[in-house]
Design goal:
Strand content: 15-25%
CATH architecture of the largest domain: 3-Layer(aba) Sandwich
Number of helices: 15
CATH superfamily of the largest domain: Mur-like, catalytic domain
Shape: globular
Number of strands: 23
Low-confidence stretches: none
Distance between the termini: 57 Å
CATH class of the largest domain: Alpha Beta
Radius of gyration: 22 Å
Oligomer: single chain
Largest sheet: 11 strands, mixed
Length: 483
């Protein structure tokens, strides 16, 4: 396939996926005709598609009765390349291309392309980088794995821009049919890597295979790497020393960060670069992991030639990414946040960030495990991470359409047994969302922080929680209730 600018019409299969929606927005801004297909189920991306006047079909018959597009883009959703829409397009001689390969085609047009990689923190880091470049008035183009950050759409295209920022996803192209890593489709000029972890047991067999994939991705690129991550550390001897610079809290970092201090509205931290003090930075992000992510952005911007004062101003007002510790509502001194965390390391980081920000408040997490493969592989560590909250209610597992449920034995009953074996009383496995709300009704009281957490649709409980907060009797003795 040639560059997207040379084609007139595009069809996006699974257009409601976050990355696909942002691709649609980019193509719309390029002046292209966009159509697509997805289910009628309500998605977080529906408002974005509506705001950009991007229409799609929920019926196969409607698609087959319309004129064929020039290019068809697919991911793992709706059976990907095996979908009858894609098969029809190929039979007619049209172009079909995977999401990752298409993003690479967009990237090729920009002289300064920056991929943000890592198994955790990609979305926050890439959002902060794109936001900073906007504030620095260089008009970046970007595609981020969120519907919005700071009320800015997660995808944008600026024809005259030199900069392109994108999330480099380590997941497979189309599991289980095609488990090649998306990372290996990308060829950016610069790479930020926040961490390396084992997060996709349906794509990688172990952490060593993950590390090998990242090492291949790193080949001959300019790298900005988190020095605090042990798996990244293990790869450094295999890289050319002039190929990378590091950031983190480690004294061996090129950009050294000091642990952050926070109140309920702002975080401050110090940084030094190559032995020179850069002074104090401030941001509305919370938790040391997010400050580390900010360190990756600071290092990148300095290496791109921006001054320390420009960088300080650019990052200062950033603090909001959709579904990343996102503030939802507050009333009766009770907060609701929503977070995408679905891996033990992400859960740990989110809880630590909440405790840094709200030091004396009780944390109640409503967690929805995401995919049977991940839940089965990480069941013990998931529960241990969730136990770091004051109370956690665990919903039934949110399945992936890519998985065959019959291939797994994991279920709520097994998770209950795991909780019992660990002797935990503050992690409660529930059989339905209704049970979660009923239990929350007995527990909720002023000064509580309620977090809907997971990569599925647990965020849809927010209306029930808001109703519960607004009708809350503020009884102080609710803290004595049983979990």
């Amino acid at each position: 396939m040639k560059h997207p600018s040379l084609y007139n019409s595009f069809f996006i299969l699974g257009i409601k996926g976050v990355a696909m929606t942002n691709i649609a927005v980019i193509l719309k801004k390029m002046g292209k005709k966009i159509t697509g297909f997805d289910s009628e189920e309500k998605f977080i991306t529906d408002p974005v598609l509506k705001e950009n006047n991007i229409t799609f079909s929920i019926s196969y018959s409607n698609v087959f009765n319309h004129q064929l597009s020039d290019v068809y883009i697919y991911s793992a959703a709706h059976n990907g390349s095996d979908n009858p829409i894609i098969k029809q397009a190929l039979q007619a001689g049209k172009i079909a291309i995977s999401q990752a390969e298409f993003i690479e085609k967009i990237r090729e047009a920009f002289p300064i392309s920056i991929a943000v990689s890592g198994c955790h923190g990609k979305t926050t880091t890439s959002s902060l980088l794109a936001y900073s470049l906007i504030k620095l008035k260089v008009n970046p183009s970007y595609i981020i794995g969120t519907t919005s950050f700071q009320r800015i759409c997660g995808g944008d295209y600026q024809k005259e821009s030199d900069y392109f920022v994108f999330e480099a996803d380590e997941y497979g192209i189309q599991p289980p049919k095609d488990i090649r890593s998306k990372l290996l489709m990308y060829n950016p000029k610069y790479i930020i890597c926040t961490n390396i972890d084992f997060d996709h047991p349906d794509v990688y067999k172990d952490i060593e295979e993950v590390k090998k994939t990242f090492l291949t991705f790193f080949s001959d690129k300019k790298l900005f790497l988190c020095a605090d991550d042990l798996h990244i550390q293990s790869l450094l001897p295999k890289l050319k020393k002039n190929q990378y610079k590091t950031f983190g809290f480690s004294e061996n970092s090129d950009l050294i960060l000091t642990p952050a201090t926070s109140n309920e509205s702002i975080t401050t931290f110090y940084a030094s670069y190559l032995g020179k003090s850069l002074g104090v930075f401030s941001t509305s992000l919370f938790g040391n992991k997010n400050i580390s992510n900010a360190g990756g952005v600071i290092l990148t911007l300095l290496e791109l030639g921006f001054s320390e004062e420009q960088v300080k101003k650019a990052i200062k007002t950033f603090g909001s990414v959709k579904r990343r510790f996102e503030f939802i509502y507050k009333n009766n001194d009770i907060y609701i946040f929503d977070d995408y965390a679905h891996h033990p390391a992400e859960i740990d980081a989110t809880i630590q960030a909440i405790r840094n920000r709200f030091k004396l408040k009780r944390i109640i997490i409503l967690f929805q495990p995401h995919t049977f493969s991940r839940t089965e592989s990480f069941k013990k560590s998931l529960i241990l991470s969730l136990s770091k909250a004051n109370i956690t209610y665990v919903a039934p597992i949110f399945p992936s359409a890519r998985e065959n449920i019959n291939n797994f034995t994991i279920n709520s009953d097994i998770l209950k047994k795991e909780v019992e074996l660990l002797g935990l009383s503050n992690v409660v496995i529930c059989d339905s969302n209704e049970e979660i709300i009923n239990k929350l009704t007995l527990q909720l009281c002023p000064k509580d922080i309620v977090v809907t957490m997971g990569a599925g649709d647990i965020y849809k409980l927010k209306d029930d929680i808001i109703e519960l907060i607004n009708s809350n009797e503020n009884r102080a003795d609710k803290n004595t209730k049983k979990y």
